[in-house]
Structure formats: C-alpha cells, structure tokens
Amino acid sequence: AKPGTEHGPDALREGGLIKKLMGLGLDVHDYGDVGTPSHEDDHHFDLPVKNPKHVATASENIAADVYNVIKSGRTCLALGGDHSMAIGSIFGHSLAEPEHVVVWVDAHADINTPLTSSSGNMHGMPLSFLVKELQPYISKLPGFEFIKPCLSAKNIAYIGLRDVDPGERYIIEKLGIQSFSMSEVDRHGIKDVVEKAMHYLDPEGVKPIHLSFDIDALDPSLAPSTGTPVPGGLSIREGNYICEELAATGRLTCVDIAEVNPSLGNERDNLITVNSALSIITHCFGGRRQGTYPKNYQIP
Ligand code: ARG
Ligand code: MN
Ligand code: MN
Ligand code: MN
Q1: What is the pLDDT of residue 2?
Q2: Which residues line ligand 1 (CB under 6 A)?
Q3: How far, in Å, are 16, 223, 279 from residue 237 at the CA level?
Q4: Quick one: residue 291, left, alpha or beta (phi over 0 = left, psi -120 to 50 = alpha)?
Q5: Is 165 a catalytic site residue?
Q6: Is 138:113 a contact under the CB 8 Å cutoff?
Q7: What pTM was computed for the model?
Q8: FRET partner for 238 with CA separation of 20 to 30 A, picked from 38, 80, 160, 180?
Q9: How far, in Å, is the centroid of ligand 1 from the Cα of 126?
Q10: Ligand 1 centre and the CA of 267: distance in Å?
C-alpha cells in the first residue's frame, strides 16, 4: 500500500546480502528484480481492492521465476516487495513441489478476502487466493485467472500473529488453520511452537517447506522500516531460531522476505531493519549461531 517496498531488495543487496550468503559457502545466483509493471485504471469496479492488475502481473512473473529456480534444483530466496509477493512465490513453489507446506511468520494473518478486508490492501490478502477452502468466497479479480488455489488449510502454520482482523480470525477458526500467535510463543516458548507447527504440518518430516517471513513479525525495535509495525513481536533470537530449525530439516526450498521498506523511518531505522533481515536470511541458509565454516575448510 505505501510506496517503497520495491526498494527492499536493493537495500538488502546494498547491505551485503550476496557476500554474506557466499560467505556461508553457497553458490549464489542473483536473478535480479522481477518485472512488476503497473497498469492504468487499476481498480475494481465494485470491490475496494487496490491495484489488482499490478499484483496479478507481478504474481504471474514471480511464480514463473520461483518455479524455474526450484525446478533447476536450487533453493529460492524471494525478496519483497510487499507481502502480496507470496501469491506468486507460493503458487510458483507449488507448481514445482505440489506437496509443500507453508510456515507464515508475521504479525498479521494476511488471509483477508477482498470482501473481508477493510483496507483494500492486497498485502493483507495473499493467502485467501491460495487456500482451496476459501475459494467460494473469493471474487474474480482481473488478471488472477492463472492462479489455481494450491494450499489446503492444513498446509499452513502461522507464527507470530498479534494483529488479526475479525474476518481473518473467523476464517482461521472455521478452517482450523494452525496458528501460534505471540500468546502461544509467550505461553510455550519458541522451541515448542516450532516443534508443534512442524509436527502438525508434516508429521513424517518429508515435505518441502515454504517460509514466508514478513519482517514485521519481528518486534518494531528490530524492524522499524516496515509499513504496518505492531508492538510485542518476535525477538531476533526467536526469529533466528525458527530459521535455524527449518533450515536444519534440509527441506526449506523457498523463503520469502517481505515488507522491508527503506523509505520508512530514518537511516538508522533502515540499517537496523536491513541487518535484522540479513540475520533472518542467513539463518535460513545454513548460518548457525554456534558458528559455521565452508565445505573443505582447512586450518591454514
Ligand atoms: N490486516 C490488515 C489488512 O488487511 C493489515 C495487513 C498487513 N499485511 C502486511 N503484509 N503488512 O490490511
Ligand atoms: Mn505492504
Ligand atoms: Mn505483517
Ligand atoms: Mn504479511
């Protein structure tokens, strides 16, 4: 909704993302920015959704790129952009790996339908277009014809929720979506929450995992440069723990990092936010707090 998240990826690149990933001994390829052209007269005639064609075109392009990256046997890191990016990345992931499950780490549930949303912001709706059980309630939007709902309610687990709209809460309960809000993190601790979420999504431990990480899941003190900060979020330790655990499964195939917005806040806010995002990303890709070394390391 607020302009600026399109600069998120460059802020992360300038913050040293590629070098950090290469430092983990990874073979990194930057595929560059995905084309996200805007359209004239981009509004819906009777729904309050903002820029549906823009989001549709971007989603289609993101889906194609994510599909190709995963098909080529690589692990995908998709940098946002606002969280509507997950429509394309999750759909693209499902084209390559139909059985994948989704861990959605966010202050928000992002499962408003165009009709339950009070903001009309599509970053608050991505999951609604992907969840099979919700399709009877989803209005046809221009450009969205290519999306085939690819998730069942049981394939999703939320972690970090603390700002959920009434319609979203109702949907979560009605569909039985597994949700670990900050209350559950407080009550059980992050270790229990991650264990329970993974056991629920995939008791056998065989399915590919999609992590969709909204930077606003972290406490605003750690991620101030974001559009919809909510107090009382995850610590960097909790965020990194989630990522370490998912990475350790060896099945983390695609990671979204959404809602880093360098046009919000001052320079210091930007730096804090970028560093938090980089920390989250590196812990998704083999970085461990106990330390790591590249393959074939020798004592010099
Ligand atoms: N629930 C609110 C809405 O529908 C806020 C969504 C925030 N989502 C995000 N990706 N920052 O507008
Ligand atoms: Mn946004
Ligand atoms: Mn959010
Ligand atoms: Mn989000």
Answers
A1: 65
A2: 82-83, 108, 110, 112, 117, 119, 121, 123-124, 165, 214, 216, 227-228, 259
A3: 21, 14, 10
A4: left
A5: no
A6: yes
A7: 0.97
A8: 80
A9: 10
A10: 24
